[in-house]
């Protein structure tokens, strides 16, 4: 069993060495090409396809990745993960623009739902919205102090722009809205 593993490792290294030689040969004829990028393309195919900065063979700095499903991320990278400001264009048409930390949405950001016409804007932690504003396609907006699993949770209020700016205060408990008061601006 150990002998088979060693033989596999040896063949794998030979394969990677052959790919690197091919990448270097390609780059001789294409001066703008980067050998590591060409190597990764040869090894993994065209998707995901990354164009941008590298450091220690990891995505670093500004870069764009295009995935097989059609989604695209354009922004900052650190140690091979989305990190810093960036924008994600999902295959279903949804978009997110904002901050990332260790590959997840973090800090301020806005997520637009393409098919529903609504959006979340606010604070994100570990890939989930934690507080902010949820705006519907008709302009009705919910502003809340908390979200749980990307759903409103806790105290907040709805604003109805077409109704003399009436605000309806209350709270969400287990996804159920419980109104407490209303007033006009």
Sequence-ordered SSE layout with sheet pairings:
Blueprint lengths: L1 H28 L5 H10 L4 E7 L2 E9 L5 E7 L2 E9 L5 E7 L2 E9 L6 E7 L2 E8 L5 E4 L2 E2 L2 E2 L1 E7 L5 E8 L2 E9 L1
Helix pairs in contact: 1-2
Give the tags.
2 helices; 185 residues; single chain; 12-stranded antiparallel β-sheet; elongated; two-stranded antiparallel sheet; alpha+beta
How would you characterize the overall build of this protein?
It is built from 2 helices and 14 strands; from the N terminus they run ααββββββββββββββ. It has 185 residues and is an alpha+beta fold. The chain has a domain of 44 residues. β5 and β6 form a beta hairpin. α1 crosses α2. The protein is elongated, with a radius of gyration of 24 Å. The chain starts with a helix and ends with a strand.
